Structures are given as structure tokens and as C-alpha cells.
Amino acid sequence: MRKVAIVAGGATKCGRREASWRDLVQEAGKSMFDSVDNISPRDIEALLVGAAQPERFTFQVHVAPMVAEYLGITPTKVIATTELMCASGQAAIRYAWACVASGMADIALAFGVEKMYMRDMAEAQTNMTCVLDREWDGVNGLSAPPFFAMTAQRHMFEYGTTKEQMAMVSAKNHHYSTMNPIAQFQKEVTVEKVLSSPMVSPPLNLFDCSGITDGAAGVILVPAEDASKYTDTPLHLIGSGQANIGNVVNNLASITEWVPLKLAVEETLRTAKITRDDIDIAELHDCFTISEIMEYEAFGWCEKGGGGAFIEEGEPYIGGKVAANPRGGLLGCGHPLGATAILQAIDVMQQFRGEVPKGRLVKDAEIAVTQNLSGAANVHSIMAYSRSPK
Amino acid sequence: MKKVKSERVKRTEEIKLPQMLDFYPLEDEKNTRISLFFENLKEHRLTTTKCNSCGKLLWPPRIICPDCMSDELEWIDLGSEGELYAFTEMRLGAPLGFAEDVPFCIGIVKISGLSISARIDNAKYEELKIGAKVQLKIVELEDGRVFYRFVPSK
User: Fold this and answer.
1) Is A187 within 8 Å of chain B by CB?
2) N or C: which end of chain A has fewer CB within 10 A?
3) Is pLDDT at B13 greater than 70 in this prediction?
């Protein structure tokens, strides 16, 4: 297997965009190709497009060839869309990585795009309610907020986690996103503001939830030994993990402990040959505030049930035990499903290059992970990155 | 150059909810091999399949056992009383077809060793408690299809 590195990345501004799905693709593609001198669209041999629900949000399937057409790419080795709901972009990166590592392709593009704002937002909510098994869970109104609300309720019940601790996650990530020019949300959010925001699905208030977001992003992967042809500062892919247990609520390993995440963490640490304490930056999947709290626990930075205290003690801030979501997270940046993991990877590359504003720069960071959950947190996907080749 | 014509054309703006945007399953024997589940519901019985070969209790009902690949499954009754493991209330962001019901409660109900999600009717979020007993309720859609919900036990 060859070692692989990301040598270029580009993205759109995220948010409620006055732009079509096709516009988002072109904006991100131009941003990405403009950022690297000697790779042109015709050089891309493998194209993987992370797109969660284009058929529902924009009434379009077979989208990978559309991305290729709009960006002037003519894939000669691999082309496909990757769907894994909220982790669709992470799936694209993993497949692109496998393509390059195996020698199937020498230059691969992992692209991600989602246009989520619709004329009728009830239709968008409908799309989000067929993520869990529609006939057995979705039919009961179980979209993401009610599912994660019950997760939060049980975590509070079993471990004494508080609404204030959950709100601190939102405040932290919104603070960092004020320093991210492409983030959807650019304003500070206080704990009080989270607690007084409208109730979506108790105990989750509006600012406990990530937004509905339009956005697109892409990263180019090449064999690490070729990386210096394109950049002095590549982002090295050093390991990865992914695990799934069950799908409908009855068949989850646990509501309050994300067993597949623990498995994916172990696999990531093993393949990257690092320990959890080596991780300087963690771009975590904070689709809801409770998610990030449970992720501190599953990564093993604190004991089970200690996630609330972990943020109360300031540990997931820059300068603490691990810098969690210095990009601004999904809570601050928005969550354009297929694009999210790509946006995380680009921000890690910019962190290592020292290109992010000082207030959210993790100085001398060497190792980062990006993590995504999907569905009822029954699937977890992680990629580990380093500044230096390993 | 010839003059370019402009014409307003008609199209239906109001479209009936297509079948694939209906959350409820197709229940009859022409559309599913677990139609007996819904036939049983019509008789006020909540049932599921159990594997005759390895004994695994399966939810949702199946036609094969994922643990041992046997297709020798039997239907068993789950009873009509469960216990609330968790619950919430849909207040914002309801999907199409549910908007008129808002706010409504949703729970995870422990029943006969299973944990199943379900609507909790006749309930307000503030009045529910973890561990509270809930009773099976059958709802019938206008087209005759049925589904299960729960209500707080008296």
C-alpha cells in the first residue's frame, strides 16, 4: 500500500446560499484548482463525490458525472457517488485514499456537496426523516433532533450531564467559527443564549443543533512520494477507522455509549500508530451538542459519563487536553452533509500550514483526526492526518 | 431575425403527496411478506418474528434470521404494556404529513425485551417520566392501514 497525501483543497462559503447545487460545485471546484499550480481537471483519474441526498434535496441522481462535467474532469480510472448520510464526504475521502494507496489511481479527487435549503423547508425536514429506517423509526417522527434529544435525555439521566454543559459545547464552537470566514454562523453564542433559544425537541434547544446548510468542497489526493511536486505543505493521511453496529433503534449497541465509535477510534489509533494523547486537533461531529460530549468519552480523553465535566473544565478548548473543533464544528460552520468531512480536512490542512486566524490556531499541532457519525450514531468514520510524513 | 414568441404554459402546482413521501409502509400481502404483522395489529396484537432455529427475537419482523440465516421464523406476541426508556417531543421541524400533529411525543419503549421507537399519544412532555408504564394503542389511517402507538398507562 502506498502512503497518501492531500495536496490541495477548496471550498465554498457555507450557509443559506443564493446559489444552486450546480453553482456550489463550480465555486468549490474553482477554489480548489486555483489553489494548486500544476494539477488541472484533466489530470484527475478518480472522482468520488460525497453527496447524501441530491435526489431528495435537488431531485437529481447520477451526480458524480455532473461534477465531472461542470469541473472539466474526465475520470479514466474511478467515478462514483458515495452516500453515507452525514459521513458521505468521509466515505469519499476513504475511497479516494484507497484508490491512491492501492495504485488504482495516481490523482484522486474527493469532492462533497449538499444543497439543503429548499423552497419548502418541511420537504427538507421530510428528507431528514428517512435517514433512520423510515418504516419503523422515521414513521414515528424520528428525525435527527428527536433521536439525539432522547440520547441527551438518557445521558443526563445516567451520568448527570447538564443542559449548561451541553450549551458550553455550542458556545465554544460558535466562538471558533467567528474566526472562520466560510462558516455559516459568525456570531458569538453564549450559554444563556443557547438555553433561551427555541426548544426544537426537549432537551435540545435550537443552538444545541447544527444548521441546515448549503456548501461544497473538494480535496486532491496523490501518493505521498509525489506530493512535493504540488506543494511544500501536504496533509498526510496516516490512518483511518470505520465501524457500524445495527440500524433501527432496537438493534443499536447502546443509546448512551457509542460502541462503533470506540471501535473506529481503536482502528484509527492502530493504523496510524498513534495514541489518543498524540492527537492535537480533533474535528468532531458535533451535529448536536450531546454528540461532542459523547465523542470526548469514546475517544477516551475522559472517563465514560465524564464528557460534561470535560468541557466544564475547559479541556476541549485550544490549550486544553485536545483542541476539539477549532474550525467551529458543525454547530458553528453548518453541516452541508456530503461536504462536511472535506471541509474538516481542508481546515486541518490550513491549521498545519498556519493559515488560520491566530485566535483559533493550534500552535505546533502535528496530529489531527476528523470524525463523522451518521444515522442513529450507528456508523462512525474517522480519518487521521499528520503535518509530517509518517 | 424572426420574432421570438413567448407563451405561458400550464402545469400542476398542487401535487398529491406521492406514495414514496408517505412514511407508513405498504402493509398488504401484495407488497410485503410480513403482512401478518399488520393483520395482527388489526386484531390489537403487537407481534414480531422469533427464530425457531437459534431462538433470537427479531425486531423489526423479518423473513430470515440475520444471526443464523434460518427462514424458520414464528410469530410471537409482545404483549400490550411497555416501559418508557426515553422520550422527547417534536416541537420544530416536523416532516410533511406530521405538521398538524405538532407538538407530539416520541419515545423508546421497552417491551418484552425489545426497545422500539413509537409515538406516545395523549401525553405532554412535561408529564412523562423515564420508567413510566405505557399501553399499546392502534391507529388506523384513512385508507385502512394500521400502525402501533402507545399511551401512558392509567
Assistant:
1) no
2) N
3) no
- Residue A205 forms contact with B (CB below 8 Å): no
pLDDT at position A120 is 86
What string of H, E and C letters represents the secondary structure of B78-105? CCCEEEEEEEEEECCCCCCCCHHHCCEE
Indicate which of A130, A132, A139 best probes the interface with B, i.e. most B CBs within 10 Å of its own CB.
Answer: A139
Contact A196/B at CB under 8 A: no
CA A312 and chain centroid, separation: 24
* pLDDT tens-digit map of A102-122: 999 999 999 999 999 998 888
Whether this model's pTM surpasses 0.95: yes
Give the pLDDT score at A119.
87
ipTM of predicted complex? 0.96
- In angstroms, how far is CA B56 from the centroid of its own chain? 22
CA distance A83 to A344: 17
What is the nearest CA distance from A248 to chain B, expressed in angstroms?
8
pLDDT in tens, B77-106: 999 999 999 999 999 999 988 988 999 999
* pLDDT tens digits, B106-127: 999 999 999 999 999 999 999 9
pLDDT band, residue A245 (cuts 50/70/90): very high
**Chain B residues with CB inside 8 Å of A136's CB?**
59-60, 116-117
Q: What chain B residue is nearest to A198 in terms of C-alpha separation?
A: B92
Tell me if A150 and B86 make a contact (CB, 8 A cut-off). yes
Does A318 have pLDDT greater than 80? yes
SS3 A91: helix
Q: How high is the pLDDT of residue B154?
A: 86
Q: Is A139 on the interface with B (CB under 8 A)?
A: yes
pLDDT at residue B17, rounded to an integer:
64
Q: Is the peptide bond before B61 cis (omega within 30 degrees of 0)?
A: no
CATH fold, domain B79-154, is OB fold (Dihydrolipoamide Acetyltransferase, E2P) (2.40.50)
Inter-chain contact B60–A199, Cβ cutoff 8 Å? no
Q: Which residue has the cell 443559506?
A: A16
C-alpha cell at B69: 440465516
Query: Looking at chain B, which residues constitute the CATH 2.40.50 domain(s)?
Result: 79-154
- pLDDT, tens digit, 9 for 90 and up, residues A163-186: 999 999 999 999 999 999 999 999
Q: Which helix (H) or strand (E) holds A114?
A: strand A108-114
Active-site residue list of A: 86, 335
Contact B90 A133 (CB under 8 A): no
Amino acid found at B126: E
Separation of CA A76 from chain center? 28
A:B CB pairs within 8 Å: 110
**Closest-approach residue (CA) in chain B for A127:** B95
- Best of B46, B108, B127, B139 to disrupt the A interface (most A CBs within 10 Å) is B108
